[in-house]
Specification:
Blueprint: H1 3-60, H2 65-80, H3 84-105, H4 109-113, H5 115-150, H6 154-160, H7 175-179
């Protein structure tokens, strides 16, 4: 074999490897974005349900208006978020506010017995469980993408084409609040 033929074969192999790794990175990025789209579906259901819950609660808890207003404001901010990072931050704030709303609701035994409220609470609980599931899926897709971006040799190709490590969907600054042992009092 001539040196020219060997050089051409080596170049073809390098190009094929480059194309293969690049395509893998694109697929992983798209898989991650699809996983976040699944989160968006669940968030849309959550956003649609929150006003119904708030209106039901308002009938019983008129003096808790500040908490309810804050939940609606955070819901609107979450709906308005346009980037994945922005949505993650807005969702963390909304989740925290919803936790506060749940504590507020505990003070109203009549409300907890209301059939409409119970149904809404059940739906909200179901959506929160689904959200937790799709967030885990998103984080799994993000981990897979980040592994490809950071491991050799795909990290070289990722750097060449602008792929970079992507953020996980986590609790961020709210972690300490959610890790604390809940206080139960009667």
């Amino acid at each position: 074999m001539s040196a020219t033929l060997i050089t051409i074969i080596v170049l073809v192999v390098i190009v094929l490897i480059l194309v293969s790794v690049y395509n893998k990175l694109v697929k992983l990025r798209n898989h991650r974005e699809n996983a976040f789209a699944d989160i968006d579906v669940q968030l849309k259901q959550r956003y649609d349900l929150i006003p119904q819950i708030v209106e039901t609660v308002k009938g019983y808890a008129k003096h808790e208006k500040e908490t309810l207003t804050r939940v609606i404001e955070l819901r609107n901010q979450a709906v308005a978020a346009t980037t994945i990072d922005g949505k993650i931050a807005a969702e963390n704030q909304l989740s925290s506010a919803l936790s506060g709303l749940k504590v507020t609701l505990e003070a109203y035994p009549d409300l907890k017995a209301n059939r409409n409220f119970l149904q809404l609470q059940e739906e909200m609980s179901d959506i929160e469980n689904k959200l937790a599931s799709v967030r885990r899926f998103f984080n799994s897709a993000t981990k897979e993408f980040n592994n490809a971006v950071q491991t050799f040799p795909s990290n070289i190709i990722a750097g060449m084409f602008g792929f970079s490590k992507a953020p996980m969907f986590d609790l961020g600054s709210e972690r300490a609040t959610h890790e604390a042992t809940p206080k139960i009092s009667f």
